[in-house]
Specification:
The chain is mainly α. The chain has 17 helices and three strands.
């Protein structure tokens, strides 16, 4: 491995060899890339191709990391420019997979926002070669780019413009549906995974870009959901009423919505109004059990029900005496007695205790207005 590393370094030094005068005046010389750099790339590939073929497959990834480290340890802008061009040419000539190069340049510890030239060249190369990555790789790269944005200062500064725009261009390109790099639904999954709503805010430079992309899914979210559903109420006891369509998540008491889509907020909130209405109806015990998925084997809805009772009926927190025992799954007790629920709904001023019991947990709950 050390022999391959030394040989790689020797090949790179030969390819990046430039005249002393060019090194001294690199910032003042205008290079014709079509002529000079193309010749350098052809000579480099002629030497690199047989060398790369001789490297064992299991050692290639580490050798590529050494290649990237060599570039990031350079200080001369001209050598940096040539080195990134050589790395890109290896991808374009299919000598090295684009996915490996993208992972190597994004995961290197040498990537620093403070090094402007290196930072811009990195994302310019990423923008240039990411089209050769499959959709699974693009999803991982998008997640890595989101992580990179965490290292970018959130305070606007004109000096950061070029570096920030270099990153934004990569994100915009991946999000572009016409580029066909990544299915849009996978993109929105990555956005919600990296920036959970109400918890983590994206960097201001990509906030509008991500917001517009999410909003483009709003019509789809309304197509697969019922508009105004929280305002609809079931007819309890009617033979043609299907209770299964009113099922709630037993932990959150909200509608079980599928997929990470920008649903209306009222669909994501606990449906306390619906529960209060159902509890107030006679003979609603079985309906409640069906809505929350309760049965004699499992008691998945205990926490959700307790929270609902606490928020709805526990007004002053006064606990006086127990009036009922609801044994979920017990052979001698009723499950969520409809008479008790009806009593609570019609007379919320009554204070009572409910003991929710099963084999594993006992929750003592005071109920009052």
């Amino acid at each position: 491995m050390e022999n391959h590393k030394a040989k790689l370094r020797h090949i790179l030094e030969d390819a990046l060899g430039i005249e002393t005068i060019e090194t001294a005046f690199c910032g003042m010389i205008v290079h014709n890339e079509n002529d000079e750099d193309q010749d350098i790339k052809e000579l480099f590939q002629n030497v690199f191709k047989p060398f790369w073929a001789s490297v064992p497959v299991e050692a290639r990834e580490q050798l590529l990391l050494d290649f990237v480290s060599f570039i990031y340890n350079e200080n001369n802008p001209r050598r940096i420019d040539i080195a990134f061009g050589l790395l890109g040419s290896l991808v374009e000539s299919s000598l090295i997979p684009a996915r490996l190069v993208c992972d190597a340049i994004l995961n290197t510890p040498h990537l620093s926002f403070q090094k402007e030239v290196m930072w811009c060249k990195t994302f310019q190369l990423l923008l240039r070669i990411i089209g050769g990555v499959d959709y699974k790789g693009c999803r991982d790269i998008l997640s890595l780019v989101f992580q990179v944005f965490l290292s970018i200062p959130s305070v606007p500064d004109a000096a950061f413009t070029d570096r920030i725009q270099a990153c934004v261009k990569v994100v915009r390109y991946i999000l572009d549906r016409n580029a066909c790099l990544l299915p849009a639904y996978f993109v929105i999954n990555e956005i919600y995974k990296n920036y959970p709503e109400g918890k983590v805010k994206p960097h201001w430079a990509i906030a509008k870009l991500l917001s517009d992309f999410i909003e483009s899914f709003r019509p789809l979210a309304r197509m697969v959901s019922v508009i105004g559903r929280p305002s609809l109420l079931p007819v309890i006891g009617h033979p043609g009423s299907f209770v299964s369509v009113w099922k709630l998540d037993p932990n959150t008491l909200s509608f079980p919505l599928k997929g990470l889509l920008p649903y209306d907020k009222d669909l994501l909130e606990p449906q306390t109004k619906l529960l209060q209405y159902v509890i107030a109806q006679p003979y609603s015990r079985d309906v409640i059990c069906t809505m929350l998925g309760l049965n004699k084997q499992t008691v998945n809805g205990l926490l959700g029900i307790v929270s609902f009772f606490q928020e709805t009926y526990l007004g002053n927190g006064v606990v006086k005496h127990a009036t009922s025992c609801l044994d979920f799954g017990g052979p001698h007790s009723s499950i969520l007695s409809s008479e008790l629920f009806h009593h609570m709904a019609q007379r919320p001023s009554v204070t009572c205790d409910i003991i929710l019991c099963d084999k594993h947990q006992v929750a003592r709950l005071g109920i009052s207005s």
